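Build the 3D complex.
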Amino acid sequence: MSESIILSVNGMQYPVTIDQGRNLLSVIRGEVGLTGTKEGCDDCECGACMVLLDGQPVNSCSYLALQAQGREITTVEGVLNGDAMHPLQRNLLEAGGVQCGFCTPGMIMSATALLQRTPAPTEEEVRVGLSGNLCRCTGYTKIVEAVQRTAAELQGS
Amino acid sequence: MSFTIARTVEDALAAIAAGARPIAGGTDLVVGARHGKAALPADLVAIDRIAGLDDITAGSAGLTLGANASHHAIEHHPVVAGSYSALADGSALVGSPATRHVGTIGGNVMNASPAMDTGAGLVVLGAEVELRSLHGTRRVPISELWSGPGRTIAQPEELCVAVHLPQPAANSGSAYLRLEYRRAMEIAVVGAAANVTLAADGTVAAVQVALSAVGPTIVSVMGLDTLVGSSVADAAEAAAAAASAQATPISDVRASDRYRRHTVGVMARRAVETAARRAAGETIAIPVNRTLGIGAAS
Ligand SMILES: Cc1cc2nc3c(=O)[nH]c(=O)nc-3n(C[C@H](O)[C@H](O)[C@H](O)COP(=O)(O)OP(=O)(O)OC[C@H]3O[C@@H](n4cnc5c(N)ncnc54)[C@H](O)[C@@H]3O)c2cc1C
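Done.
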């Protein structure tokens, strides 16, 4: 049975009609039309599908879209400052924390949530904060560095 | 097929009395359905919007966790971390930050996995689960809740509304740790929790130990009363031997039964030692696993 609901994504309201079992990821990509959020393992292990729900990280591959109604969903498209990159995006590029880039949107969402709650994280805290996000290219070192650089920048500003 | 969002416990109780299954974070229910373990129930009632059901209340009578308290909230609650450390150690190990934000204590205990990470801590801390239906409320000691892997004694129309823990004894401390092959996103190979009370002379006044992933449900280790009056080191050795003897592990892709039987003793010994250090007033960061460097070195 399908239901018509409104999802709030990056501050915009999207009316969607979806089946009860649909996961949030497929609705964000297929109905809302924002494809920055990726499907990796489809099993909560890799974090490519990470979005924020009321500011907290959620694996959208395994979260029912119906359960997200009335909550604010933030995807990687929502972290831009107008047309400018978010400092996390710029630092990931500058530090070499992006190679194939598939994990990057999920990394950015987890890092955004981490920096909200812990503005000056230690390396260990960054690693714990990103522990639900797999990267097969970089070896993580440069991703951790990019998050720490961003924290320092945001603290300084 | 239906999906409703309950705003009150009464709404939720009415929906489950009519046959709906509660869904809190969905990290077991939805993920299990996607694995084909069990189809997603046709009728669901979301309980995650019920006001106050995620409250954590600490007082002189003890601690009450609303069923929707998240692992993240439990891990970071100062009273839980300080006085109910074994529970905080367990919640801090669950999945990733996303799993800990979405996953709840109610979902963890009602899902009844023998490898669950809060169960052994809740057992040694003497927790009770509050179950409610349209017909009333009852409290069940947590060790009597689980009847097998994925099974509880709760009736289908009962909702877990809270988990209650008594005030810990003076000069007591607790810890939970698990054997893992890597330091995040793991399932316990085996796990052990201990709650230790020390006498004024530093000997053991009371000790409880419980084990995860070595039986169909969380295992309470029996026969530890005889350790009263012994040194912490002797109690830790004896608890290790009892844990290995009383475990009934299976072999699977993660470990053989013999390996589990051996390592659960090691975890029990380390849990008793850590709990005793906490009982003596030492601060050991949550989760103990990371502090002790269990899992692959970083
Ligand atoms: C990637 C990943 C990693 C994980 N890692 C761990 C781990 O390390 N350790 C661990 O212990 N677990 C782990 N889990 C399992 C899971 O996250 C936890 O068990 C979590 O606490 C479940 O809570 P939930 O709110 O998501 O439950 P749900 O999935 O919403 O519910 C689980 C079950 O309990 C029932 N239920 C939920 N709430 C209630 C209630 N109040 N009353 C009655 N019934 C209820 C539901 O009907 C369902 O049957 C992991 C899961 C994932 C996806």
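Residues 1-48 of chain B form one domain.
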